[in-house]
Amino acid sequence: MTRCIVWILLLLIGSSVFAQKADFKACSRYSEKNLKSRIHSSSVYPSWIGRTDFFWYYYTTDEGIKYYLVDAGKGKKQELFSIKEFAAKLAELTGKTEDVKNLRLAGFQFEGDNPYRFTFSKYGKSFEYNVKTGELKEFRKEEVKREFERKIYWQNWSPDGKYMVYAYKHNVYLQEKDDTTAFQLTTDGERSYSYSYQRDKDSDKKESAAITWSGNSKVFYCLRQDRRKVEEGWLIDHLAQPRPTLKSYKFPMPGEEHVFTYDLHLFYPEKKLHVKVDIGKYPDQEVKMMLFDFKKYPDYLYFTRKSRTCNQMDLCRVDVNTGEVFEVIHEVCDPHFTEQLFECRILNGGEDIVWWSERSGWGQYYLYNKDGKLKNRVTSGDFVAARIYEMDTTGRSFVFEGYGREESINPEYRLFYRVNFDGSGFTLLTPGDGYHSIDLSKNGKYLVDNYSRVDMAPVAELRDVRGRKIMALEKTDLRLLYETGWKEPKRIKVKAVDGITDLYGVMYQPFKMDSTRGYPVIVNVYPGPQENLVPQAFSIDDNGNETLAQLGFIVVNVGFRGGCLTRGRNFHCFGYGNLRDYALADCKFVVEQLADRYSYIDIDKVGIYGHSGGGFMAAASILTYPDFYKVAVAASGNHDNNIYTKWWGETYHGVKMNDKNVFESKIPTNIELAKNLKGKLLLITGDMDINVHMAHTIRLADALIKANKRFDLMILPGADHGLAGDYYLNLIRYYFVENLMGQKMDNINMGDVD
């Protein structure tokens, strides 16, 4: 009996010793706002000088700003000038003392292709500097008087200057030069079915017409959107003065009968003729005009049309002389096209068509001729060839983003490649292990590569277009940041619940962590599927997770199956038809794996939070696994995808068509799970959110009330979808401190943590 009492006392003493309190001082100290002065430049932004091999840039460290000139051809870097000497010369000319650590020059510009002479402005004067001689002198520009014709915004003139087009009361009017009267080309324009850019408002003023001229001025076109029958969303601006006002906007929802539709119109000014082109094929098809040099090649137009079921798409060519439509490429991609990555480039007047497709299960590029005959595959392999960065039609090659090709590198890191149209010359341009951004020289021979990771300081390197490293340019100095006690987060790799698929993410820990203790864990989630928000590049405080961790939490951010669109079609489409639940099992399994791996993670104290799709997932998680998640914060969540935007629900969950061409879509909602709530749930929404209407949050709140569940609700007045600011961040921080740590936060000033 005595021994039992001793053990109980020891346990009580231990629990009091290890009782956790939030470290608000650390949270404030390590905020991005308070740390940003500890680092300076984190990227090199080159300014290429004409089409030469030279570029200049400036870079700031704790020693101040320095200006550099780089000869990429020779791989040499030099300071453009000695700051002290330059500042002294400038002071002689201006009579003003310069700060040699913060010397900033406006209007910095090199003369043509000359890399050794530049001009700049200071104190309202212009100066010229010779890099070779070090001579600095005042520069007086020759004033060239030019007669500028004042352009009126609503006038759209033909390239030959003979015709002017405008819109009036949603219709198209044509006026010849030097004529005082205009000819009305259309009569069927109306509000929400307009030829004007001002499509949803009536006006008695002349407006700019939504038209594009051909290069030979013989024709112009308009792709018109019909929005008339699309239902509206409604908001009340409670803060409007002197009284609240009602605001409306067009908002098609999944499965609704009336959605945006399109028609294409050709106009021939010489004959004052208007022709409507027959572009129809799929019910409620989505139509987009393709980027094409209509100035140089005025005989054709190109557009894509995509089925409402999102799995069929055509590339079509229009002969503007006859109005005839030719279907060049037809493709089926089940269950849906990945529109964020889709690319189609019409080159050399249509002789070459570069087309992106996931037909192999991986996004790759294919080359077609003008008749839609496949010439060859351009890229291939089990990786995603994504967005085109630069197209060289003369050299018949292009530079593009790539994901997942290099075995030793996180497949969610962006790298860049170059390839010829015929598939030859495939070259990795940016081999560094990190997330890359590039800037190509104007002559196409060199690039500056900036890359980093969440656990690696940004690096800038100069490379040629063969991928060969020419020289290191800069590496961000984190010394002052480290002196504060700041540490990089951990990169983590775990398994999906299938036990096979690798998932990648980031784990944030308190900088003063005691690994013998147990810490509550919080998962910051965003399930996609249209975007991946897991941090990849270096940041002081990504998503506020680093400062949240300093309160005394382990914070985790991982990409789940169904999310990242750059990991191939199978990964990205994992959740198709299951828009509510697809990421939930993976998330729970991730936390369990990390708790097994790190003994300091307290698996009995798990929280989850997110915004938008992350808010939707946070609520779905605590309602699906009510015994696992103890606390959730769901901000601006699309809790009922049946009332969210059409493209989201129909693309990622599916839509069915019945015999009357009326579509239907039924998406499981968080509302249906409300009865399961056991833990603490905070719902947050802005009352002016036109993306995810506050009705999503109100409907979930109503279901929770009907289920007699206790929860918390915060409506932020005047806030739209992009919630931000200290008040919002502290709502999340304080809620987890109170409910996951058990620390009461009474009489708190919501701005205390800066």
What does this structure look like?
The chain has 754 residues and is of the alpha+beta class. Among the domains are: 47-138, no CATH class; 483-741, 3-Layer(aba) Sandwich (Rossmann fold). The chain is built from 12 helices and 45 strands. The strands form 11 sheets. An 8-stranded mixed β-sheet has the order 36-37-39-38-40-41-44-45, sandwiched between helices. Strand 9 (156-157) and strand 10 (163-168) form a beta hairpin. The two termini are 52 Å apart. Mean pLDDT is 94; it is low at 1-18.
Question: What is the number of strand segments?
Answer: 45
Q: Kindly identify the CATH topology of the domain at 483-741.
A: Rossmann fold
Kindly estimate the percentage of residues that lie in beta strands according to DSSP.
Answer: 25-35%
Indicate the CATH architecture of the domain at 483-741: 3-Layer(aba) Sandwich
Strand order, main sheet: write it out: 36-37-39-38-40-41-44-45
| Chain-averaged pLDDT | 94
What's the overall geometry? Answer: globular
Query: CA-to-CA gap between the ends?
Result: 52 Å
